[in-house]
Model the fold of this input.
Amino acid sequence: MIQIAPSMLAADFLHLEKDVELVNEHADLFHLDIMDGTFVPNISYGFPVVEAIARKATKPLDAHLMIVHPEKYVDRFAKVGVNMLSFHLNAVDNAGQVLAQIRAAGMKPGLAINPDIPVEKLYPYLDQCDYVVLMSVFAGFGGQKFIEATYQRLAAVKAEVKRQDVSCLIQVDGGVSAANSTKLIRHGADILVAGSAVFKAEDPAEVIRSMRG
Ligand code: DX5
Ligand code: ZN
Done:
């Protein structure tokens, strides 16, 4: 079953409660983009916003760390109620250690890569991951155009997950909409992240429904 994870980066921060309720009612996960202005050239939001969302959320929180030294913040994210925590492979020296740290803190660990990193780099870690994040835009900003090469990358990772016989899910993040969701699901996506496509739509609930294919 496909899971839809609206990215709160595109939510209405003046009326955040309304958008939290939308996700509670119609989607599967809250995708929380954490950017530090160093790993990516943009700054998003931090703990006060995550805590506020956590207070109202009835669906799991999936935080996507686009920061240097993610290992420093693992315990903080666990404490504020995050359930799934991903970081970028090239943000750390020892990905296996950070994945284990996240699991030990009681969260599901995820490993993310940008579109220019060969998918094979993920393969040694698949058995330690609850999910991998295939970026379909370069991490840093919402509202970018989906990169078509993602389909082949997705199919390759799906085949490797099957070959290794592990239970790692595949999340696709960036430029995802109802226009490409069916094809992404067909190529093996398990979790679709969508910011602009959901929150900038006139009828977000309908977009989420149609994204399920
Ligand atoms: C990009 C973020 C994405 C982004 C998705 O750095 O990781 O999660 O918010 O936004 P859209 O769906 O607008 O591309
Ligand atoms: Zn993200």
